[in-house]
Specification:
Length: about 325
């Protein structure tokens, strides 16, 4: 029998997803549970265990040789703990130990969700074939991950590439992380909507009041909505250019809900990159939308597990 599948978990503030994933990123026996994010840490862990029990009941389970977890962060891969901002019951929660209670002796790998998405994009998405890439997840927050010298680079704790907390406005508004002017305070979907509302934009009846509604208005030429996306695009361009100057990336891949805005985001982003990415070795950088969609977390948790076990082994 082949031992060629990874049991993958994708854990976020709204859903806990699981699947058995092969080396090409194909998903089997997938399962989804809502995250009881406002309940106790034990209740959230019980939901994770239910997902694992569902996977273990699959006839394919005997082919599983590892477990890969991508979790909302911050995560601490060294200690196997997670403290997701949007799951208050989990603070330094021993997630890896909890997973091991369900999965026995299988090796377990933990990375942040931005690193998982990056692993997915490098395996089967828009970063495939590139030796160096930055991948960003722009949604309620802003996360990311790096591929350097052809390999996923999660860093010692599994958080490397967390671009949302690069400061791009030194006198900007304070961020819950403790710093000022973080990318996340300017470019997340939450920030885009907040800025548009502050400027007087209002959704039409029945229209989305969040970043998607702002994007629709920007596409129709609404100046306040356009300004909110331009501001977000400049923050992203500054952080992407800073990353490129530090580690020489070839491509920046942008996923997450806000990337769904399409040209409302990418047009001002390309313009802003011309302002920021001016050094000779940064100028060739391209910015492209992610290709793996909602399955990125699962594909990436498995891909990261394979990569990291190979590097450790």
């Amino acid at each position: 029998m082949h031992h060629d599948l990874v049991a993958a978990l994708d854990i976020g503030g709204t859903k806990i997803a699981g699947a058995l994933v092969d080396g090409d990123g194909a998903l089997f026996a997938r399962v989804l549970r809502p995250t009881p994010a406002q309940e106790s840490g034990e209740r959230v862990m019980a939901a994770v265990s239910e997902v694992l029990d569902h996977l273990a009941a699959s006839p394919l389970w005997p082919r599983v040789d590892a477990v890969g977890i991508g979790s909302a962060g911050p995560v601490d891969a060294r200690n196997g703990t997670v403290s997701p901002v949007n799951i208050p019951g989990w603070r330094d929660h021993p997630l890896v130990d909890g997973v091991r209670r369900s999965t026995g002796t299988l090796p377990v790998t933990l990375v942040g969700d931005g690193v998982a998405m990056t692993a997915a994009e490098h395996l089967v998405g828009a970063a495939r074939g590139h030796r160096s890439a930055l991948c960003l997840v722009v949604s309620t927050g802003v996360g990311g991950g790096l591929v350097l010298d052809g390999r996923l680079h999660p860093g010692p704790t599994g958080n490397a590439g967390h671009i949302g907390h690069i400061s791009v406005a030194l006198d900007g508004e304070s961020c819950p992380c403790g710093a000022r002017g973080c990318v996340e305070r300017l470019a997340s979907g939450t920030a885009i909507a907040r800025h548009a509302h502050a400027g007087g934009w209002r959704p039409r009846p029945g229209q989305d009041a969040g970043a998607a509604g702002v994007a629709a208005a920007a596409r129709e030429g609404d100046p306040v909505a356009t300004a909110a996306y331009t501001r977000a695009a400049r923050a992203l361009a500054a952080a992407i250019s800073a990353t490129a100057a530090l580690v020489e990336i070839e491509v920046a891949v942008i996923g997450g809900g806000v990337a769904g805005a399409g040209e409302a985001l990418f047009a001002p982003l390309r313009t802003a990159l011309e302002d920021f990415a001016t050094l000779s070795f940064v100028r060739g950088l391209t910015v492209v939308p992610a290709a793996t969609g909602t399955d990125a977390g699962l594909i990436g948790a498995a891909a990261a597990s394979r990569t990291l076990l190979r590097q450790d082994g």
